[in-house]
Here is the input.
Amino acid sequence: MNAATMTANSAKIDTREALLDAGISIMLEKGYTNAGISEILQAVGVPKGSFYHYFDSKEDFAIAIIARTGDVYAQRMSRIFGNSSLKPIDRLRKYFSEARADMVTKECRKGCLIGNLSQEMADQSESLRDALRTVLQNGRIVLTACIVEAQKNGEILNDRPAADLAQFIQSAWTGAMLLSKTQKSPESLDVFNRLIFEDVLKSK
Amino acid sequence: MNAATMTANSAKIDTREALLDAGISIMLEKGYTNAGISEILQAVGVPKGSFYHYFDSKEDFAIAIIARTGDVYAQRMSRIFGNSSLKPIDRLRKYFSEARADMVTKECRKGCLIGNLSQEMADQSESLRDALRTVLQNGRIVLTACIVEAQKNGEILNDRPAADLAQFIQSAWTGAMLLSKTQKSPESLDVFNRLIFEDVLKSK
Here is the structure.
């Protein structure tokens, strides 16, 4: 590959990435429907043709955005849940304590793109729903594995199926994020952290 | 009041109610942004001028929709939580068991208009956020009163502040509804019902 081809290829990747980054930021603020393609193009400074060079449609673009958000979540989860120097229960605590701090930094705005798009689009588009379901499922797989380990170590005393505990935690967290957005307060996130660890997981 | 005035007044009320009913149904399916005023007018069969006779703007219309939805929730809650022939814990069980059945009837579509609009609009409009927050808060007041009564009777063994338990239940339910929409399955609602009653409330 010569230098000119390499530059062209990296410019290609950069434009696609820049479109995705701008799309994530705008959809997080406004949702799918309210996010205008023209606004995204303007943020990146590329013409309309560019968009349709990379994506077949707004729906196709949103699926790429969901996959990319899923990758970011997977990396964040891997950093914490793959850290074997922490006890399994402390990985769970660290994950939700960081997520709470992150929401406070954002002044309880925006929330989670996966939750937002699920609420808005699950009934509108089967392909978006499928992409969203996959991200949620991947998150639960990581949570479940960590809960199994913590149960084995006796750090979590609740002996329900780990998959049920993971599903419940994901529901309760998603709802707590939504309430904190509506209340513009982290109270629901604090209540989540107290009740999940003390009452549901019965962790020590 | 003569007969003609009475008829005119009741037609007035009917048109406003019909607009609200159509708005609720369409916003529940599509959200705020995707719901077109023209679609709502068409459903009711009235001209555009009629809409602006009753409502100043789409936002004003949505606030009336939220208030009306809040009234419907309050009536449903009052029917169950005001039923003193049921034990407090059984009122809670009945409420969430009916809500689960309702979601299954709707094939896990649509969900709850208050949750949906919160997710979509809490960052977009302060007046919608305020209306949504009020409905959520009113729901928590009813839940809290019932939990206090159940704690006094020893039907709920968890002695945390009832307001915290109510906030947690509301978060977990809202999230479970969202997950059931994305998964098109009532599994998250079933997990909610098991874990809330057995592990969180420690009810007998």
